[in-house]
Amino acid sequence: MPVPARVATERPPRPRLALRTWLVPLGPVLLVFLLAAAFGALLGLPGSGSEHAANTVTSPQQDAVQRLDDVRFRLRDELAFAGAVDEQADAAQRLAMAYGRAADHVTSPALVSAAKEASLAYLALESAARAGDQDAYDSARARGEAAERRVESELAQINRSRTGG
């Protein structure tokens, strides 16, 4: 006897609920979530304020090095392009003061020594420029360049140790 063919039974299609039907019961929860996200974006994540403050606080040495960098490149350019004796002497004097101030505010003994050396070299350069003594000027300029290289080397050491490299 032949077996009757099975009739496939289909499930009746589920009624699709409109998006609005889903959102209405979830509305208060979504509103709280959106408000929390907005406040989180405005105020930052927990702890980020104190972490940010800790990252932006600089040491007195970092401040002194930054002030020195802000002024020394500009003053060295002024000295290099100075045509008149008074301009050369004034630029050398300002460089001597900048390095002297840096030596008073940095804590690294090697950087203090290098900054003092640069300050003295630029004072000698100023004196030689005002006196019109070309030999003394050339000698002081060579001392200043050597002191600049030493300062650069010490700053590189500080930056490497600060960044852990």
Question: How would you characterize this protein structure?
Answer:
- By secondary structure, this protein is mostly helical.
- The chain folds into 2 domains: 19-55, no CATH class; 58-163.
- It has 6 helices and no strands.
Give a nutshell description of this structure.
This protein has helices at 19-43, 48-56, 60-81, 85-105, 109-131, 134-163. The chain has 165 residues and is mostly helical.
Dominant shape = rod-shaped
- Percent of residues in beta strands: under 5%
- What summary fits the major beta sheet? none
Unreliable runs, pLDDT <50, ≥5 residues? none
The first-to-last residue Cα distance is 89 Å
Q: How do the helices and strands follow one another from N- to C-terminus?
A: HHHHHH
Query: Helix fraction?
Result: over 70%
Mean pLDDT over all positions: 79
Number of helices: 6
Structural class computed from helices and strand pairing: mainly alpha
Write the topology of this structure.
Blueprint: H1 19-43, H2 48-56, H3 60-81, H4 85-105, H5 109-131, H6 134-163
Helix pairs in contact: 3-4, 4-5, 5-6
Based on the model shown, name its key terms:
165 residues; mainly alpha; 6 helices; 79% helix; rod-shaped
